[in-house]
Specification:
126 residues; 2 helices; 3 strands; elongated
């Protein structure tokens, strides 16, 4: 009789290791559900800034009108929750620059929050 035939090879995960893999997967999914909307909003901001930047008439607009164009573009994209008028600075020196800086804080687990800080500057073309 062959001794090796009496031993079965174990295949797959044990119940404990499956539980660990499941917990890590759920942890990653929960964190992603909190972070993905924040980054989608930032992507919408980048698109709004690109629209303003590509318009040659934007450099001659008043600061309030440039801000309103950006906010309206975010509103159309359903991404106007965290970016406010005061977060958008228009700097006129040798050219026109738009500087957007804001933070988003989301409750994560208990008293622990996720904090995302965004800072973007674009120069308008003439």
């Amino acid at each position: 009789m062959n001794i090796k035939s009496n031993f079965r090879k174990q295949r797959g995960l044990t119940l404990i290791s499956f539980g660990i893999v499941l917990a890590v997967g759920l942890f990653a999914a929960y964190t992603s559900m909190k972070l993905i909307p924040i980054y989608l909003e930032y992507h919408a901001l980048l698109n709004a800034l690109e629209l303003v930047q590509d318009d040659p008439a934007s450099a001659d607009m008043p600061a309030g009108q440039i801000r309103n164009r950006i906010i309206n573009s975010l509103w159309v994209s359903y991404a106007s929750d965290n970016i406010k008028h005061q977060d958008i600075k228009i700097i006129r020196s040798q050219g026109v620059e738009i500087h957007v800086q804001y933070e988003v804080r989301k409750t994560w687990i208990g008293n622990v929050d996720l904090l995302a800080h965004f800072d973007k500057t674009v120069a308008l073309r003439r």
